Amino acid sequence: MSRQVKPGSKPYRARLRERLAALGFPAEAIPARVAENLIVECGTPPRTAWRLASELSLDVAADRYNALTGDPRAGMRGTRIWEYEQWPDRGVRPTVAALRVLATVYGTCWKSLLGLRDLEQLPAKDLAEYHAEAEPEVPRPKARAPVRVEERVDEEIGTGVLDDAILLTKTNVDDTQLDDLWSDLDFLGGVYTRTAPESILGQLAVVEERVSAMLKGRQRPKQTQDLLLAGAKCSAMMAWIAGDLGRYRLSRELNSAAWLYTQYADDFLARRWVRTSQARVAFWAGNGVESAKLAADGLTYHVGGRLTDAPLVLAEARGWSSVQAERQVLDAIAHWTSIEDPDLGAGGEDRFFNITKDRRHYMAGTSLLAVGQATSALREFTTAREAYEKLSPENRWEAMDPMIRIDTGRAYLRLDDLEGAAAHVEPLLEADVAKQPDMVRATLKLLAAELSGPRWRPAPAARHLAEALQDASAPGRP
After folding, report:
1. For residue 266, how many other CB atoms are within 10 A of its CB?
2. Is 126 helix (H, G, I), strand (E, B) or coil?
3. How many Å apart are CA 457 and CA 2, to the nearest integer?
4. Are the beta carbons of 38 and 52 closer than 8 angstroms?
5. Taking the CB of residue 164, how many other CB atoms lie within 10 A of it?
6. What does the pLDDT look like over 314-353, one tens digit per residue?
7. What's the pTM value of the predicted model, to 2 decimals?
8. Average pLDDT score over residue span 409-424
9. CA-to-CA distance for 48 and 215, rounded, in angstroms?
10. Are 90 and 123 in contact (CB under 8 A)?
11. C-beta of residue 14 within 8 angstroms of C-beta of residue 34
C-alpha cells in the first residue's frame, strides 16, 4: 500500500478490501479480515476495529443497535458507543448484553470485541461468562428493519440496564461530608476580613483538594452537583484572595477553574460568584474594560434575593472608570443608587461576595473620582468612613481603613485642599502598609505620584508627604 495512506483510514480500508477481493475472499468474509488487520497491523482496539470494518459511523451503529433491540427509541447513542470504545483507558465499560447486540450489528461474536487489556479489567462475573461460553456461529444482521433478538439477549439487556441504574445509588459522599465542606467555606469567607490572606488561601486549598478527591469517585447526581458548586465557590474565593496578594496569574487560573465548575454545575448563583471574582481580579490586574464586561455578564444571571446586584453593578462602574468612560460610570452609579439598601449587611452564606456598606460606598467613590466627580466622590468616601466605624471589629476588612484614607486624600487634592489630604493620609505613616493587600500599596503609589506631579511639585509639604508615603509602603520597612 502507498505510504501516503494513513493506516486505519478509510482509504486504507478501501485498498485493503480491494486486495482481499483480488485474493478471492468472498464479500461476507472481508469485514472479519479487515477487522483483524486493523487490530494486528494498526493497533486499533477491537470494538473500534469491528465498527470500522463494517464501515459504520457511530450514529449509524447506534441506530442499528436500537433497531435490533426492537425499540428505535432505545437509549443507545453514538456518543455512548464511542465511550465503550475508549474503555478501559477511559470511557465506560460495556456490559456483556451491550456487547452481544453490538456484535450482531457488526456481524461477529461478542468475544471478538474484547482484547487482552479489556479482559484484564472485566468484572469476575463477566470474565467467567467469557470463558464458559463456547465460540458461537457468527451471527449476521439480516435487515435494517427492527427485529426481535432471542429472549435470552433481551433478558440480559434488561439486567445490564438495571445494573447501570443501580450504580446511581452508589456514592463515596455522605451528607455529613457535604455539610462540612459548606461549613468550612462559610467560616473561611466570614473570617477573611480579619485573618492573614495567606492563611485563608492555604485553608481553602485544603478544601479544594477534598472536593477534587471526592469528584474522582462516584456520587449520586445531586451530590455531584453539590461538589461542583463547592468547587466553584472555593476556587472563586481562592482567586479573589490570590488577587489581594498580587498573584494575578494564579488568580486567573483559579477563576478559570471556578468557571469550569459552574459550567458543569449549571447554576446561576455559582456563575455570579465567579463573575464577581473575575471582575475584581481583572480590575486590579489592570484590565478595567474586561472587568466591566465580566461584571455586566454576571448581572445577566438572575438569582432573586440570594445575592445582591450591588457588588457587580459597582464593579462595572469601577471597570469603566479605568478608561474615564464617564457616561457608563454615571449610569452604573445611578443604577446602584436606585437599588442600594443602606441597612444591607454582608451576613449569610454569601457574605464573602455580598460586600458591606463601607466597601460599597468606597467603590462608588473611586469610580466617581476617576471621572472627575471629586465632590460626589468625597461624599461617598465620608459615608464609607462612617459605615466602617459603625461595624463591629470582627466584621471590618482591615484594608478598608487605609484605602478610604488614601482615596479621600486624593479627592481633597482634586479639590485643591492639600491640608485636608494630609490630615487623612498622615496616620498611614505609622502603619505597616507594606503588609496590606496589593491594592492598598497600588493606591498608595498612585497618591504619591499625584503629590509628586506638576500640580503639587512646587509645594514642599506635598513633596515631603509623597516621600514619607513612599517610605511607608517600601518592602522590608522595619
Report:
1. 11
2. helix
3. 79
4. yes
5. 14
6. 999 999 999 999 999 999 999 999 988 887 765 555 678 8
7. 0.63
8. 92
9. 29
10. no
11. no
Distances, alpha carbon 49 to alpha carbons 73, 183, 416, 459, in Å: 26, 51, 80, 83
pLDDT in tens, 257-298: 999 999 999 899 999 999 999 999 999 899 999 999 999 999
CB 168 within 8 A of CB 220: yes
Determine the Cα–Cα distance for residues 49 and 47; give it in Å rounded to an integer.
5
Please count the CA atoms within 13 angstroms of the CA of 307 that sit on its side-chain side. Answer: 25
Residue 262 CA, chain-centre distance (Å), reads 5
Nearest to 439 by CA among 403, 467, 401, 466: 403
Q: How far apart are CA 307 and CA 351, in angstroms?
A: 9
Q: b/e string for 394-407 if b means 16 or more Cβ within 10 A?
A: ebbbebbbbbbbbb
Helix axes 46-53, 96-106, angle to 10 degrees: 30
* Ordered DSSP codes for 351-394: TTTS--HHHHHHHHHHHHHHTT-HHHHHHHHHHHHHHHHHS-GG
Question: Is 128 buried (19+), middle (13-18) or exposed (0-12) by CB count in 10 A?
Answer: exposed
Residues 6+ apart with CB under 8 A from 347: 354
CA atoms in the 13 A half-sphere facing the CB of 396 = 17
The Cα–Cα gap between 352 and 57 comes to: 50
Residues 367 and 333: beta-carbon distance below 8 Å: yes
Report, in angstroms and rounded to the nearest whole number, the Rg of the chain calculated over CA atoms.
33
* 32, amino acid identity: A
